[in-house]
Design a protein that fits this description.
Elements: H1 3-35, E1 37-41, E2 71-75
Antiparallel strand pairs: 1-2
Length: about 90
Amino acid sequence: MNKTTVKTTSTLLASALMAAVAMAGSTSSAQAGENKTEKCYGVVKAGKNDCQTATSSCAGTSKVDGQGDAWILLPKGTCEKLVGGSTSPKK
């Protein structure tokens, strides 16, 4: 092997290792965030939902205030304190 090949191979391996470490770090922090939050249904203002519903295809498209299948992500334990809040979709 010549010096250029060794240097290129070393650079590629280092880049792959850095990418793997970065991905592992972001996954664990995302999982930690999931454990501290919950979906809260039925309390969202029209057009302020976090994700799709049965009647709309993307975030921010709920049609009415308090739509039963529209949710927002809140700190765990908050939803049960809100009037009309539920951790499962309403019909």
